[in-house]
Amino acid sequence: TKSLRETMKEVIPPKQEQLKKLKVEHGQTVVGDVKVDNIIGGMRGLKAMLWEASVLDPIEGIRFHGLSIPDCQKVLPAAPAGKEMIPESMLWLLLTGQVPTAEQTKELSRELAEKGDLPKFVEDLVDSFPRSLHPMTQLGMGVAALNHDSQFQAAYEKGIKKSEYWTHTLEDSINLIARLPALAARIYRNVYKPGTELAGVQKDLDLVGNYSNMLGYGHNETLTEYLRLYIALHGDHEGGNASAHTAHLVGSTLSDPYLSYSAALFALAGPLHGLANQEVLRWQLAMQKELGDKISQEDIKAYLWKTLNSGQVVPGYGHGVLRNPDPRFIALQEFCDSRSDLKSSPIIDLVNKTFQVAPNVLKEHGKTKNPYPNVDATSGCVLYHYGLTEFKYYTVIFGVSRALGCLTQLVWARALGLPLERPKSLSMDALTKIIKQ
Ligand code: FAM
């Protein structure tokens, strides 16, 4: 069977040809207009970025190299004793556009475990942070510090050909993904369980098997399986979202993958993006506390209106692109439905009940373009159910996941020789001048 590197060497030349052809034959073809609304509206809907691994359809949701989430759940290999697709098989798909075999997936798991230990100075750095420093700040700083060992940076300093950039970018990306569980678990231990022992990386476990074990949940196979699904599902969501776009922008300066992904993590840390999952749980628990045990649809409706009337957003609802319930939300709901303990969990029940009411309330409210749940409407609840109740940590798990897509695109950006990103900005006066012309 072919290795990941051999597969990449095969799939890159046809893509380079495709890009060359696009440039030569269609370089001047118009694919859309730029409206003033796009410029002042956060560039919504503007087709202005190349992103190979996934495309987001407003109705169908995300597709990874053409495969929908249910497709991926059918074909992507699971952990040896598990059923859910694992991040390794998703990473292989994102990078190569091909579905890996069980053997290829296992080999990637083995490689990641082999490379999973943190350098001592990063352990010391993370241990020196105050416990009160937000876990996302710690993660971003830890990832940036890992660039001490960047192969790309070392090779660039020595002087390498542009055509070789991608190989070093790939090595850095694999090393970074391998080290994320140990880094993220160390942050969890330091902040929430200080003084307890931290398990080491086990060479025979898959990436999330190790992560769950280091978090102290290795004994809980359902939670470990959930984390596998969650981390595989969140791996990529097109290029325009804030974290992916940040990684791409920073990477386009030829910053190494560690620095690029560190920057992406700080975008993920914003409440309108990755921090939403912590907000959802806080909000649902406050609802539970206020409304008590027997909550009716009318109660939920009134609570939703109270949130909206106080000028706040309903966390976990709405999306920059999606205009339907997020298929990632559906996949996580199905996971819960298939396990009796989760099905009867009060917090998961409340998420379900909210889903039955919220879209109509949001439609009536009339502001959001998408009244349906996004993935964050449910993602934290299973963690909460199994005792991983530290909300502030949830975005870190998202951050372990999103590395798959952001780093894949960095490899492709280097393989395709994409240039420095540099859009044109305008002042309002300059814009007005153009309008008057
Ligand atoms: N509750 C109340 N109002 C909402 C809303 C919600 N869930 N979602 C959007 N709106 C409002 C929005 O604030 C805006 O109001 P103003 O015109 O007064 O500024 C209006 O509806 C139009 O917004 P939109 O075009 O529908 O959404 P955007 O593309 O601007 O924003 C989100 C998208 C996700 C930031 C937005 O829907 C939101 O704030 N949702 C709640 C937070 C959340 O769940 N974020 C998670 C996103 C997730 F996918 C992720 O990145 N992890």
Itemize the secondary structure elements and their pairings.
Elements (H helix, E strand, L loop, with lengths): L3 H23 L9 H5 L13 E4 L3 E4 L2 E2 H7 L11 H10 L5 H13 L5 H9 L6 H11 L5 H8 L6 H28 L14 H9 L5 H13 L8 H10 L5 H12 L7 H16 L5 H13 L17 H11 L2 H4 L2 H20 L10 H10 L8 H22 L12 H9 L1
Antiparallel strand pairs: 1-2, 2-3
Helix pairs in contact: 4-11, 4-20, 5-9, 6-9, 7-9, 7-13, 8-9, 9-10, 9-20, 10-11, 11-20, 12-13, 12-20, 13-20, 14-19, 15-18, 16-19
The site of alpha-fluoro-amidocarboxymethyldethia coenzyme a complex has 19 residues, from loops.
Protein name: Citrate synthase
Family: Belongs to the citrate synthase family.
GO molecular function, one term: acyltransferase activity, acyl groups converted into alkyl on transfer
Structural class: mainly alpha
The low-pLDDT segments are none
Rg of Cα set: 22 Å
- Separation, N- and C-terminal Cα atoms: 61 Å
Q: Could you say which overall geometry the principal axes of the C-alpha atoms support?
A: globular
List the ions, cofactors and other small molecules found in this model. Answer: alpha-fluoro-amidocarboxymethyldethia coenzyme a complex
Number of strands: 3
- What share of the residues does DSSP label as strand, in percent? under 5%
Determine the fraction of residues in helical runs and give it as a percent range. Answer: 55-70%
Chain-averaged pLDDT? 96
Largest sheet: 3 strands, antiparallel
The neighbouring-strand order within the major sheet is: 1-2-3
The ordered string of helix (H) and strand (E) elements is HHEEEHHHHHHHHHHHHHHHHHHH
Put simply, the count of helices is 21
InterPro entries: Citrate_synth-like_lrg_a-sub, Citrate_synth-like_sm_a-sub, Citrate_synthase, Citrate_synthase_AS, Citrate_synthase_euk, Citrate_synthase_sf
Keywords: Mitochondrion, Transferase, Transit peptide
Active site: 273, 319, 376
Protein name: Citrate synthase
